[in-house]
Amino acid sequence: MDILTWTYLLVGLSFALYIGIAIWTRAGSTQEFYVAGGGVSPLANGMATAADWMSAASFISMAGIISFAGYDGSVYLMGWTGGYVLLALLLAPYLRKFGKFTVPDFVGDRYYSHTARIVAVICALFISFTYVAGQMRGVGIVFSRYLEVPIEWGVVIGMIIVFFYAVMGGMKGITYTQVAQYCVLIFAYMVPAIFISMQLTGNPIPQMGLGGDLADGTPLLEKLDGVLAELGFSEYTSGRKGLTDMLMITLALMVGTAGLPHVIVRFFTVPRVKDARLSAGYALVFIAILYTTAPAVAAFGIFNTIESTSEKEVDALPSWIDTWEKTGLISVNDKNGDGRVQYVADPVENELTIDRDIMVLASPEIAKLPNWVVGLVAAGAMAAALSTAAGLLLVISTSVSRDLVKTFKPEISEKKELRIARLAAAGAVILAGYFGVNPPGFVAQVVAFAFGLAAASFFPVIILGIFSTRINKEGAIAGMLSGLIFTLIYIIYFKFISPETNTEEFWWLGISPEGIGSVGMMINFLVCFGVSKVTPPPPKEVQEMIQEIRIPRGAGKASGH
Amino acid sequence: MEAQKQKMKAYWRKNLQTLVILLLIWFMVSFGFGILLAEPLNEYNLGGFKLGFWFAQQGSIYTFVILIFVYVWRMNRLDREFDVNEE
TM segments (chain A) (predicted)? Predict the structure, then answer.
């Protein structure tokens, strides 16, 4: 069978599976809709969290980013995994004990204030929307590249699928489809990685292959360092970014991960506090499988690409270059007319431009793997994008039905609340789809900054809400707002107002907009402390509630009361 | 009542101690070995990797996983010891 048939077959099968699960897990109550009834096992929740968390960017783009950034790409590897340690140790067990449905729920109750709750809802909506639009776009791109349909159609098909299980099944439907999606995506990621590792280094485990020797006996990384240096690039294993910037970006990504509402909310779905701790552990295991493979895929990818193109005759390039040239992801331009490809660091002489996404998307073809592997990678990329989109849509619909409507109209019946939640989910799907088809220029720019914003807004007030009894509502509101506004202004300035100055010499203390969330977080912490100190302490009931959430015993299922 | 309060204070203190130790390790393997000390560590070799590079792209992630499971194990024991565990 040819590539296209395989792709249709595998993507179609995986979609049928998701829809089947959606029908089987229809949500009947708000509790099922918001937190899957609170009875998800830690292992299943760990898997669902991993799929929820790993987006189109993790699956498609991350390895490619590392291919070109080398050591500097480590910020993503450490940043996007280290956050789970913070989540497991500092947030998940306590929020589970708190026992309600959403992050704004916690902020509103702990800081006994509608204002704090509204600020939290706005942050949650803002973060989730920027993020979800990127996912829908990702679905569209995968469709258009592999199935040869226009991006718009791809987005619409993706919307229909997500609509099915997010709107019908709520958290319950999402959880079990995410478990299936994790299996699909990890299988799709590992198969080509294992094949390529075998081909290059003879070691079937990519994590070890990365440190392995090539057929001629030289270690892969040493060879790569040498090849890149020869072409005028910097060494693969050493960094170019400033030290402060490396630290700040890593910190912002870690803290941002721990502050993302769609990840936090997953820990409300397990029955007990100890399950919340354990399931964070499982989640990181499942994530680490992909995240420790990605650097191997990255190094293999760039090595293979250079080997098969550099100084080769333009007319005799491998066939995958032809295939992917059509999508615009790679292009060859024989500038000096010598009939050979020069891939060099100097942009004037360089004749080969490669999009980073090639490293994963084209990896099966680069390594000459069978056609079904290509179809598998397409299904995996789709699973990664859909699972994250669904998790985000749930946060959006919950924010509307519960945090906005229910706060101001507490008397509405459960049935009505559920209907509003479904309507909100449907509305969010349509809006996300719209942005997927017509991406406003800023979406791609802002997705990466959702982390900075999460770091600067949620993380400090949640941590302080648990670990301090003295922080009050004035402190929390002032902290969230100052952290958020500072971070937003810095990002907007360098990305939109004055993008030509977005270089190290103009950055404040050498911190890039990607890393500024860390500073926003520190400002949030300081303001929170300062303002709380000069305003009255929280009321006695709140202080008692804090003591209560510190102790595991007595955590009933998450409930709205 | 007062005794119970003291007990809960002791539980919380032990919890915080655990957190501090684990977070110190968390900081060391990533920000320490993976970034700040990466260059000197790159002088050493581990199974084909420069050591600093290995920590940044592999070692820190493995350590994170281990840290969470140590935390789970330690907290389950603490919960039982202070009789605040769930059934």
Answer: 6-24, 77-95, 116-134, 146-167, 179-200, 246-268, 280-303, 372-400, 420-437, 443-468, 475-494, 506-531
- A278 in contact with B, Cβ within 8 Å: yes
* Of A130 and A104, more confident: A104
Is it true that domain A70-311+361-549 has CATH number 1.20.1730.10? Answer: yes
**What is the DSSP-derived secondary structure letter of residue A340?**
B
Query: Is B57 a domain residue?
Result: yes
Chain B residues closer than 8 Å to A295 by CB: 57-58
Please state which of the ranges A23-27, A221-225, A296-300, A379-383 shows the lowest mean pLDDT.
A23-27
Residue B62 near chain A (CB below 8 Å)? yes
pLDDT digits (tens, 9 = 90+) for A124-174: 888 888 788 777 777 777 777 777 777 788 888 888 888 877 777 788 888
Q: Assess whether pLDDT exceeds 60 at residue A353.
A: yes
* Mean residue pLDDT across chain A: 86
The answer to whether residue B3 is domain-embedded is no
Residues in Cβ contact with A435 at an 8 Å cutoff, skipping those fewer than 6 apart: A129, A132, A133, A136, A137, A443
Domain ranges of chain A: 70-311+361-549, 314-355
User: Is A285 an 8 Å CB contact of chain B?
Assistant: yes
Q: Measuring CA to CA, how many Å separate A41 from each of A179, A287, A550?
A: 11, 18, 22
Annotate A243-309 with three-state secondary structure.
HHHHHHHHHHHHHHHHHCHHHHHHHHCCCCHHHHHHHHHHHHHHHHHHHHHHHHHHHHHHHHHHHHH
- Note the pLDDT of residue B85: 85
Please report the pLDDT score of residue A445 as a whole number.
58
Residues A263, A53: Cα–Cα separation, whole Å:
7
Phi then psi for A332, rounded to 5 degrees? -115, 135
Residue B32 lies in a domain: yes
Query: Contact A532/A474 with Cβ under 8 angstroms?
Result: yes
- Kindly report, residue by residue over A443-485, the tens digit of the pLDDT: 555 666 788 888 898 899 999 999 999 999 999 999 999 998 9
Distance CA A78, CA B60 (A): 7
Q: Give the model's pLDDT for residue A74.
A: 92
Q: What letter does residue B37 receive in the DSSP assignment?
A: T
Q: pLDDT for A287-310, tens place per residue? A: 999 999 999 999 999 998 888 888
Asked if B48 has any chain A CB less than 8 Å from its own CB, the reply is: yes
Cα separations in angstroms, A65 against A205, A297, A471: 21, 11, 40
Q: Which residues of A touch B24 (CB under 8 A)?
A: none
Tokens at residue A261, please? Answer: 């509402």
Please judge whether B86 and A238 are an interchain contact, meaning their C-beta atoms are less than 8 angstroms apart: no
Position B73 in a domain: yes
Put simply, the answer to whether B84 touches A553 (Cβ < 8 Å) is: yes
What's the helix, strand, coil split of chain A in %, to 5?
75, 0, 25
Q: Residue B58 and residue A207: Cβ atoms within 8 Å?
A: yes
- A82 in contact with B, Cβ within 8 Å: yes
Q: Is A237 on the interface with B (CB under 8 A)?
A: yes
Nearest chain B Cα distance for residue A277, angstroms: 6
A-B CB pairs within 8 A amount to: 135
What pLDDT score was predicted for residue B31? 93
Domain region containing B41: 27-82
